[in-house]
Amino acid sequence: MQSVTTQIHDDVLEILVNNPPVNALSWHVRQGLSDGIEEALGNDAVKAVVLRCDGRTFIAGADITEFGKPPQGPDFNAVLNMFETAGKPIVAAIHGTALGGGLETAMVCHYRVAVPSAKLGVPEVKLGLLPGAGGTQRLPRIVGVEQAAIMCALGVPISAKKALETGLVDSIASEDSLAEDAIAFARQMIAEGPRPSRDRPITGDTAIIDELKAKNARRWKGFEAPYANLACVEAATRLPFDEGMKFERAEFTKLMGGSQSAAQRHMFFAERQAAKIDGLPKDTPLRDIKKVGVIGAGTMGGGISMNFLAAGIPVTIVEMAKENLDRGVGVIRKNYENSAKKGRFTTEKVEAMMGLLTPSLSMDDLADCDLVIEAVYESMDVKKEVFGALDKIVKQGAILASNTSYLNVDEIAASTSRPGDVLGMHFFSPANVMKLLEVVRGEKTADDALATAMAIGKKIGKVAVVAGVCHGFIGNRMLSERQQPAIQLLMEGATPQQIDDVHTDFGMPMGPFQMSDLAGLDIGWHRDPSKIETIREALCAAGRFGQKNGKGFYDYDEKRQRTVSEEALAIIEDFRSKSNLPKREITDQEIIERTLYPMVNEGYKILEEGKAQRASDIDVVWIYGYGWPVYRGGPMFWGDLEGAGKIVEALERHNIDVADSLKAKA
Ligand code: T1G
After folding, report:
1. Pocket test for ligand 1, best of 3, 26, 64 (most atoms within 8 A of CB)
2. In the prediction, which pLDDT does 167 show?
């Protein structure tokens, strides 16, 4: 199949790219572009050129699947130079998303025409890269330093309208006549002639570069690519074009050869792979979800409801007590209004979403729901009671989901006459913010129910991952492998601060003890201050419940900023000394080996037991559920970088039993 064809329209030659699904710049596309421009230049009857794409979008970038493989076909920059230095005007006709190498290709065309719905951007920074085919050198010459710096460093595409305002696009075509409009525009440019971006002067102030660094310092902590992007844009303002291109190439090569880009490219595909259910035909029929029921209007129930309302799906939310129901609905409205204040929603959208919410005090109102999600108290007895009731109330064919974070979904399913319709939908708190959704597949869960839950997860903006039934599924099961040793390290002389710092230096948003304080130390506490068998019970006995009452492992001010607590350290030391465990200096490396390596080890066990479909799913869980730094690619990807041999040696040295498959890999 020819991925690039040409067609002559009187005096305009049209180069048409057709390389599904997103017209990526695979080697045969580069070859076709090169042949196409040569044909245009070799034919005197041709006075102008249009570059357009078939299918859903203009070129959406280099072909990421080619990265790291031996180069094939013509060099990308060489092809781009043929376009930019062509003696005839070239017009890029843009629809869909002109991204990365796609926008770079559009920028070596002399003019750009786009339909109103088009988006244009350089998202390479999200792959740990930078636009390595002149993007950082041409963009400032077309849109100015400020706009170029923002686009390269943040990687967020802009609309065709914004592109017209900033000069990235010269004319807006109509949605259904892009081809004709582009050819007409090209004819108009014959008199103008070519306009190479490289010859255009750079305008704008480089102050934006330090502003972006200051504004994004927290978010970019540990990342290399944003800074490399800004360095290249800055270089464009002070170096001649060819020097700037060399500077960009050097920076691109550094990033491409580094582990961060490998990790972020791994995550690009891992996120998409997670949506696939092995062994299930891609076209498995889905159940139609027109109406959702949520049981429980607490933090989780309210957050879960918000996801569906924001996607335009009506929700009936049920509580037993009126004051809890009213409070829950009030919290939903307040959250939406806060988002509206930040510009995320219009007030009309808030009213529309609230209009889709039906509060109720009776589960009978769930009878006609297509999906019911239970988010009640984490007790198996309560869950069984609720599902038993749902079984009698809700219409046949509805999916009955539990938001349990670790209870056995098969046991819950057994309390109904329809286990095929039962599964877990484990949201992460706050459910309206965290992107991860673990869809727990029960022994008897029907394939179409599972596929429907995965699809609805995507529809409400989640990254859904299939998990098997086991204690804690994927994420929390690995989390407990980190929390236990962290407590044990306290018993041997480490401090909460030291352990948390190792994790935040690693790139986690918070360490084990900050996380415990956030969740609350008193969760599951027996409330008997005289009974102290663990450090947590010792802290609870002293009234230290975590962020919620301003003191836990740390002290917290009203802005929830933490400081080291001498009282907490004294309580820990007092408890520790009674255990007769010798106190010793503990290195940061030992903390990594005893808290992060066991997580990788548990990931291997999860795969051995078939509780996750693939290692990259486990990476997706940790990046979207717990904030594992994306530039490290998730626990399993990072474990590969660390090396199985090194991990096995350390685990054995710490008397931790190693997963067979991990040992085999070493
Ligand atoms: N290369 C290869 N495959 C790609 C691809 C790409 N650039 N983009 C998407 N795919 C595949 C994807 O894996 C999926 O495959 C299918 O296309 C549909 O994608 C030199 C070095 C374009 C906004 O970063 O942002 O240019 O799962 O599910 O939600 O400077 O894809 O169906 O088998 O995401 O409608 C820069 C990445 C590359 C854009 C469409 N470009 N792509 O979203 O569909 S680096 C990007 C996207 C570069 C140069 C540098 C999105 C999309 P499958 P999808 P979508």
Report:
1. 64
2. 97
Name the closest-CA residue to atom 32, ligand 1: 21
**Quick check: is 590 catalytic?**
no
CATH architecture of 292-471: 3-Layer(aba) Sandwich (3.40)
Q: Ramachandran region of residue 421, left (φ > 0), alpha (ψ -120 to 50) or beta? A: alpha
Overall size of the chain counted in residues: 666
Distance CA 277, CA 286 (A): 13
The domains of the chain are located at: 4-257, 292-471, 510-583
Token code pair at residue 374: 């239970």
430 Cβ contact list (under 8 Å, min separation 6): 299, 303
**Spatial contact of 158 and 166, defined as CB atoms under 8 Å apart:** yes
Per-residue pLDDT at 579 = 86
Q: How far is CA 141 from CA 3, 99, 199, 460, 601, in A?
A: 31, 18, 8, 39, 50
> What pLDDT is stored for residue 376 in this prediction?
93
Please tell me the CATH superfamily of domain 4-257, with its number.
2-enoyl-CoA Hydratase; Chain A, domain 1 (3.90.226.10)
Q: Of 14, 84, 124, 602, which is the active-site residue? A: 124
User: For this structure, is 124 an active site residue?
Assistant: yes
pLDDT of res. 523:
85
d(CA 103, CA 99) in angstroms, rounded, equals: 5
- Residue 161 structure tokens: 């309208």
* Ligand 1 atom, smallest distance to 99 CA: 41
CA distances from 541 to 305, 483, 531, 536, 569 (A): 36, 20, 8, 8, 14
Report strand pairing: 463-468 vs 97-99: unpaired
Does 510-583 match 292-471 at the fold level? no
In CATH terms, the superfamily for domain 510-583 is N-(1-d-carboxylethyl)-l-norvaline Dehydrogenase; domain 2 (1.10.1040.10)
pTM confidence score: 0.93
Q: What is the mean pLDDT of each run of 10 residues along the chain (666 residues)?
A: 93 98 97 98 98 97 89 93 97 98 98 98 97 97 98 98 98 97 98 96 95 96 97 97 98 96 96 95 92 96 97 97 96 95 92 98 98 94 96 98 95 97 96 96 97 97 97 96 95 96 96 93 89 94 94 94 95 92 94 98 98 98 96 98 98 97 96
52 forms bridges with which residues in the sheet? 16
pLDDT of residue 1: 65
pLDDT confidence of residue 8: 97
- Residue 6 parent element (H or E): strand 4-9
Q: Looking at ligand 1, which residue's alpha carbon is closest to its atom 23?
A: 97
**Amino acid letter, 605:** K
Neighbours of 584 (CB within 10 A): 9
Alpha-carbon torsion (50, 55, 56, 59), positive or negative: negative
* Exposed / middle / buried, residue 525 (Cβ in 10 Å: 0-12, 13-18, 19+): middle
